Amino acid sequence: MRIETMYSKNFIGTISKVDKEGYFIKVNNLREIFLPLTEIKFISKINTELEQRPIEPKPNSVIKTPLIDSVDAKPAVTNVIKETPEIEDISETNSTIEISEFYKKYNLANFDINSFNSPENIRQLRLFQIKISKHIRKNKSLSLKDRRRFGKNLISEMSVNPNDEFLKYQKTKRLGNRIMIIGLVSFTTGNIITFQSFFSTFTGLGIGGVVLTEIGAIVMGTSSKWLFKSFYTYLKEQQSR
Questions:
Q1: In whole angstroms, what is the distance from residue 43 CA to residue 217 CA?
Q2: Where do the DSSP E strands lie in 6-94?
Q3: Distance of alpha carbon 5 from alpha carbon 28, whole angstroms
Q4: Cα separations in angstroms, 228 against 111, 139, 191, 234
Q5: Extended strands (E) in the chain
Q6: Could you say which of 2.60.40.1180, 2.30.30.100, 2.60.120.10, 3.40.1670.10 is the CATH number of the domain covering 1-98?
Q7: How many CB atoms lie within 10 A of CB 129?
Q8: Exposure check for the chain: N or C terminus, fewer CB within 10 A?
Q9: Helix (H) and strand (E) counts for the chain?
Q10: Could you give phi then psi for residue 25, rounded to 5 degrees?
Q11: What are the residue ranges in the chain where pLDDT is below 70?
Q12: Using one digit for the tens of pLDDT, what is the confidence trace for 166-187?
């Protein structure tokens, strides 16, 4: 199957699983990717049996052979009508993979990741982030806007074909957001009750809200580790092609 996304990216492979939110596709290197329904522009089937199917002339095709004159044994000139069977034009093969605009814009093919391991701890993560920042600053073809929007563009790129690490990033970030929202609501409610009551015991709700807000901020901060781990995996896969 050939699938084109809203971002003008083409993917060719086999649909391995259908989910209520999209499709799981196996591409040529046996890697499985997930495409959400909201990002799919159209899906078309590629006929891979064309070369194996014998070409047969249609019933209304007429093929005439030259007639031989019995006197001089010279062939008489006759019209030969032969219908050429139609052959489907296959413009793409299963081995065709389009490089994304994000990968080309930030010149990630020249980003050296061989000196890095997967950013498992804070030190490795920080070194990886510094190396990425230097790589972007050295790219003179990038505008100031593109440099500042690298983080947002990275998240958009990773959400097209999310790997396991990026799914963990999304899950951790959502969890952190929820904890922070609960904390802010608790803090606000606690302050309202405190102002309306003389009992100091009600202030515990506001204090609990502050604690939850801080915990949510910490959880959201740790989500960046999964984002850059997913980016590391993405670079390894792209540069191995």
A1: 41
A2: 10-12, 14-19, 22-26, 32-36, 40-44
A3: 18
A4: 14, 20, 38, 9
A5: 2-5, 10-12, 14-19, 22-26, 32-36, 40-44
A6: 2.30.30.100
A7: 14
A8: C
A9: 6, 6
A10: -115, 135
A11: 29-30, 46-98, 190-209, 216
A12: 999 889 888 887 887 887 777 7
What lies within 8 Å, CB to CB, of 217 at 6+ separation is 176, 180
With contact defined as beta carbons under 8 Å apart, do 13 and 44 qualify?
no
Angle at 200 between CA 197 and CA 205, to 5 degrees: 90
Phi-psi sector, 22: left (phi>0), alpha (psi -120 to 50), beta: left
d(CA 23, CA 11): 12
Angle subtended at Cα 143 by Cα 140 and Cα 144, rounded to the nearest 5 degrees: 110
Long-range contacts of 36-42 (CB under 8 A, 24+ apart): 38/6, 39/5, 39/6, 39/7, 39/160, 40/3, 40/4, 40/5, 40/6, 41/4, 41/5, 41/6, 42/3, 42/4
Domain boundaries, the chain: 1-98, 100-239
Structure tokens at 16: 């391995």
CA dist 22 and 26 (Å) reads 13
Task: Look up the pTM and report it.
Answer: 0.50
Query: First and final CA of the chain: distance in angstroms?
Result: 21
